[in-house]
Amino acid sequence: MAAIRFLDVKTNIIEVGGEQLSGYPELCALFRLWDGARNGRSMPARRDFTPESLRPWLGNLALIDVCHNPVRLQYRLAGIHIVENLKCDPTGKNFNDVVPDSGDNPSARGPYQCLTFGEPVFEIVFPHRKGRFSFDFARLSLPLAADGQAINMILVGEYVIPRVDERTWGAFKAASVVKVLN
To answer: Of 48, 46, 45, 34, whose CA–CA distance to 1 is shortest?
Structure first.
């Protein structure tokens, strides 16, 4: 099974290892689908997934195209729940235009970290602290590569979660991620 990078948006620490999503069954199932589609490669391609195979997550999925030179992320499509949460349809828009101040905004890091490391990235995002949204969410960014190596798309699953109190973040993090010993 592939490793998942757990992005700690409070302290900016990235833990690397064999983490498995425990408190997020939808994202855990999406990760298993992605992992199974790799078939021995470092990452699967978009063509490895059919709309039927993604049906359980469709409302909470986004496909983001990766443009190189300069690096830019552009929404190819977004599920209805993501559109409702963003209060706009991001399809065809640059990720940085949809997520303002993405350089400093924790909600922009997961897909960029996924692109940088070429590995799945799980994060808890606190956008309500910037006053933009009234909720927090869990995001899993999964790299896709048409040639099996160079990332050309990112498959993103996002689910709204109950607000996490900053003072209890450490306990929440510990309860949310289970380390799997290899």
So the answer is: 34
